[in-house]
Write a structure and sequence with these properties.
239 residues, alpha/beta, Rossmann fold, 7 strands
Length: 239
């Protein structure tokens, strides 16, 4: 049984990833800072999924959670870093000159430091196993910066380059590291009028679009893909 840990699993993107992986035969640990949200995603997937409360910005909690999973399952085969966000954190778009150091910390902690915490905690076990997969969810803003989103863009761009660097370090251990850059993705906090998109394909990116990409990257079909960033934006990023 292959084990995948998803962070930020209560989001619509996390839900789509969990559904696709469960359908592909993975056992999915749906983690989120909101246990109730994680349980809501995991419950319909039955025995293929379980919920876990996890704050990725708390290094001690991350280390303890991953150690407990390794003790139960022997190894974590895949880590999917989905936790993060911007507007979902309750922050408003504004020029960088009007932001505060507290806002810098909140954005960088949730979007970048959480990825660092989880990767750092899961890698020793993967190295011992001689195999593993890490997929981190970045954003189209990480490919091309935009106004009123300088900090978010910086954090998401950092995830991509960090993953490229990490892929070169751990490839010799049979570990692959990739990223996905969604476009104007659906989110629980968005209203209908926020889902408007200029994507050539005519709709916003949904969770299963991203879930399908994650499932591919974790499969044997992608066995020679590492350090890559897949654009799943419906043609809005065009990097």
């Amino acid at each position: 049984m292959s084990i995948a840990l998803i962070t930020g699993g209560a989001s619509l993107i996390g839900e789509g990833i969990a559904e696709c992986l469960a359908e592909a035969g993975w056992h999915v640990v749906v983690s989120d800072i909101s246990l109730a949200g994680a349980e809501e995603v995991a419950k319909p997937l039955g025995s293929r999924a379980e919920a876990l409360a996890l704050d990725v910005t708390n290094r001690g909690d991350v280390v303890a959670a991953i150690l407990a999973l390794e003790q139960r399952f022997g190894t974590i085969d895949a880590l999917v870093n989905c936790a993060g966000g911007f507007r979902g954190l309750g922050l408003k778009r504004k020029p960088f000159s009007q932001t505060t150091p507290d806002e810098w910390d909140r954005i960088l902690d949730a979007n970048l430091k959480g990825v660092l915490n989880c990767c750092h905690a899961v890698l020793p076990g993967m190295i011992r196993a001689g195999s593993g997969n890490i997929v981190s969810i970045s954003a189209s803003r990480g490919l091309r910066g935009g106004p009123m989103a300088a900090l978010y863009s910086a954090a998401k761009a950092a995830i991509i380059v960090f993953s490229q660097s990490l892929a070169q370090e751990v490839g010799e251990h049979g570990i692959r590291v990739n990223t996905i850059a969604p476009g104007n993705a659906d989110a629980r906090w968005k209203t209908d009028d926020m889902s408007n998109t200029r994507a050539p394909l005519g709709r916003a990116t949904n969770g299963r679009d991203i879930g399908n990409a994650v499932t591919f990257l974790l499969s044997a079909q992608a066995s020679h893909i590492t350090g890559s960033c897949i654009d799943v934006s419906g043609g809005t990023a065009l990097h």
